[in-house]
Amino acid sequence: GYSCSCCFLLLNSKVLIVIASRCDCQVVSAMSESNAVLQKPPNGSIYQINEQVRPWVDVIDRLRAVGIEKDIAIPQIAVMGDQSSGKSSVLEALSGVQFPRGAGLVTKCATELRMKNKKDAPWSARISLTWNDPQPTDAGEVHSPDQIGVKISKLTEVLLLARGKNATFESEHSILIELTSSDVPDLTIIDLPGIVRTTLEGQSKTVISEVDSLLQKYLEQERTIILAVVPSNVDIATVDIIERASKADPEGKRTLGVLTKPDMIGEGAEIEKVDTLSNLTKPLKLGYIMVKNRSQKQIDEGVSLSEARTLEQSYFIAHPFFGKMDRSLFGVENLAKNLTNILVDKIKESMPQLLKEVSDLLENTAQDLEQLGETPPQTPDNARRALLAIVQRISSDIHSAISGEYGSPLLHGTPALRMYARFRARTEAFSAAVLKDRPQWTMEQLKGVVAEMRGRELPGFPKPAVLTFLVGEYIHRWREHVLRLLQETKELALEATEAIVEHHTSGYRRLGSLFKTGLADLVQEALAAARQVQLEQVLANEREPMTLNHYLMDTYNKQRLADFEAVLAECFAQAPPCLFGTNPSTEPLCATLKAALLERCRGTFALGGESNETQEAEQLGAMLMAYWKTSCKRFIDTAAQNADGGLLRRLDAESAARLHRCAEGGGDADWVVDILAEDQQVRERRQRLEARLQRLRNAKGHILATTHGMLAASVSTA
What we know:
The protein is elongated. The protein has helices at 26-34, 54-65, 87-95, 145-163, 207-220, 240-248, 270-277, 296-300, 305-318, 332-371, 380-403, 409-413, 419-436, 443-452, 464-504, 509-542, 551-573, 587-604, 612-663, 669-675, 680-717; strands at 2-4, 9-11, 16-17, 76-81, 111-117, 124-129, 140-142, 175-181, 187-191, 224-231, 255-260, 288-290. Helices cover 57% and strands 8% of the residues. The strands form two sheets. It has a nine-stranded mixed beta sheet with strand order 7-6-8-5-9-4-10-11-12, sandwiched between helices. It has a three-stranded antiparallel beta sheet with strand order 1-2-3, with no helix packed on it. Strand 11, helix 7 (270-277) and strand 12 (288-290) form a beta-alpha-beta unit.
């Protein structure tokens, strides 16, 4: 760089830092003159950019044109600042078109300005709304720059009216201006509403939070270049937008400060602005640029934008402080060049990751769309075929779930749908509950029953009515267990069939509801039939004692033997150890033990001296317990078989026919198409996914075409 000893100036290739208030030395004069006027290229506008740079700008416009910003953040420039900070004036100076001006919240929605520089092209523009509804009458071709401000105001009114009668701000949709000219930069810039601190008469109280939310969305996007517009007459350290930007972009890598209204700088405050431009006060890696736009007076006097640029250059050249600084820090044209370079650098930096994100999201979207299944059929013949296929898949999974073959993808991955496995678990619990509910009769109860039922029969020959009466008591308790088994079997069948139907009719809510109702009716019918069989046949048969199984007498004898062994064990437990030796002296003890043992057995088994009723009760108790064990095993198997055959196997056998009957319920051909129509929610999701898939495919194609083209161009140049 250069140094100036007379006024303590330090000059380098980028920035002139002013320490004194003024300098007229030859070094400063030479530096000022060398940067006094930005020269246009010999064959066109100063905004014309290198042909190798243009494709990078174009690809972002093409990505935005296909709507990819709905899915992935793309490199972009967003203009932010306080109300009346000069944002619209900056855009006006860049684009050559006049934006609405005024006090308060003038920008009531985001405005996207797409500018394309085209050599020797006449000025042309289109304006529209970024929504899927029909475009309003004021949208379309714009024939002169003067019309754009009016059309922006009218389209803003359309957006607000669409949102609600008293709406004062719109955040979902925006206004799009597409501008082509030989005198505009290749840039796309988004103008955002100014920061709102207080609401005015007629404004919604929510407008402050709505604007803040919109600004924050753009601030947080890492690929958004923040163009922070700040009036020169305020302290940069207290500016709200600079503070917000520093939180979202703490390193200042994507924030460019623009100082406006330099003619409003108070006397003595120039040094502070020089420090700001020199990136000393609030440093930003992209730095600051100062511009001077047309004032309202100049607009009223008819000063053109071209004239305003000349006046702007003259103003900074002649300024006692700014005139001695690097010319690249001043002027709209330098701002445009900087923005283009920054944007292109951001695009190049982001492109590899952008391509990866597009590719990943493309794959995920295709998978989400695949999960929705095929698009519903539109003709009766196709609808019938699709319906038959759905019925086949449902009945096949039901059969597999009941037969215990769980090889289908649905059953393999969802244990809760394996009906027979769950049924077996329920029958095990049913068996345990029945066996646990063992009857307990006392000798007094049995003697009482024998006495009450006494007839002409001889002692030791109880009449069958006694056994039937006592068996009936515990058979009645089985009723509760078997009804619970049937109810639980019904519930697991309903849960599994509903889930299977839900899986195979996902998206067809009406068809799914129809099939669920049909199968639920079938299960309910099967339950009613099984209940009738259990209650009127199985339990009724068990109330009449009968068996041909030798297990009964085996069990009876085992019971009697067990009672004897228990007495024997009790007696021997009381014998002295010496009793079991070979000493003859123990013989008297053995005789005594034998007598005691016989006496105990007589008492236990009611031998000798006991009444007939007592002995009969003893025998009856043993026989009852033997018969309970015999009938209990038989009942458990029979009840489980009835629940299996009456509910599950019937469901397996009749489900396909029931589903076909449901599918034929509408009669005419159109009904089949209608029943297979997707739910509105699913249809809308499918449409969103299809639209996203198309956007992503188009975006990936644009990115690949651009990167391949740039690579080919670089190889060709080399």
